[in-house]
Amino acid sequence: MGTRTLAFTLNGAAQTLDVFKETSLLTLLRNDFALNSPKYGCGLGECGACTVLVDGAAARACVIPAHGVDGRSITTLEGLGTLDNLHPIQQAFIDAQAAQCGYCMSGMIMMTAALLSRNSDPTELEIRSELSGNLCRCGTHVEIVQAVQRAAVLIRQAA
Questions:
Q1: Can you give the pTM of this predicted structure?
Q2: Do 39 and 95 belong together in one domain?
């Protein structure tokens, strides 16, 4: 059980940390950096609650070894916006009242960020397809799709 020194960027800040080789990215984010947005759901990369961006692409933090992000850039929900300056995606999810319990929201928002970085005007079918791997047990899927559509509009207006 040896450690390895990692150097990576987390939410825009350079980080260097010694990490056990068996540590997952989710454990690193939650335990070493006290970031609460990526949630532990299934532990198998199936539910999407732990979704973060790795070099801008959506990734399941529970199944990524921490050493797999050496030299890379990680963004969590905490890195998108602040309470005083919400990211347009965060604002859109609030506007659409897309959260019920909120457990899936971080993952949904991060998947939305990845989608909208590649496609600024997705169709409803493209949104549903993109988010199909993120589970929401509360049944707010209609509101979530509306939030993504609203986020796309807000981002295009800001450009």
A1: 0.94
A2: no
